[in-house]
Amino acid sequence: MSASLLSREEWETLTRLYAAGQRGIDAQGGRYPAAGSWDALRALRDADPPLARELFRRDETAQTLIFYVAITEAGRRYYEKNRRMYNLFYPPR
User: Fold this and answer.
1) Tens digits of per-residue pLDDT, 4-23?
2) Beta bridge partners of 91
3) How far apart are CA 19 and CA 71, in angstroms?
4) Are 68 and 28 within 8 A, CB to CB?
């Protein structure tokens, strides 16, 4: 991860993804409104290393694919390492 800080929106999105764990947050209408804005998700996905990723799983009952976004292992480590600092910069609302 580069030396730049995440924006408040990116940090809050990473926080929601961390809370969701490996199950992630399902897409709704082709987007992930429960996770955060598309710009924040794209920034986390495109970080080096990626802090989030888009995935899919098969729903056997409905015979369909469910798209979702989840935190990566790098994202989990980043969150755990920097949680205190970001909570000082961006106190939880």
Assistant:
1) 899 999 999 999 999 999 99
2) none
3) 9
4) no
Range of the domain at 58: 8-89
Q: Considering only CA atoms, which of 47, 57, 36, 41 is closest in space to residue 5? A: 47
pLDDT in tens, 22-80: 999 999 988 999 999 999 999 999 999 999 999 999 988 888 899 999 999 999 999 99
Do residues 16 and 69 touch, judged by C-beta distance below 8 A? no
Is the whole model's pTM more than 0.85, yes or no? yes
**Within a domain: residue 25?**
yes
Measured at the alpha carbon of residue 64, what is the angle toward residues 61 and 65, in degrees to the nearest 5?
Answer: 120
Number of domains in the chain: 1
Closest by alpha carbon to 36, among 50, 24, 23, 48? 24
DSSP track, 19-56: HHGGG-EE-BTTB-TTT--HHHHHHHHHSSS-SEEEEE
CATH code at 15?
1.10.10
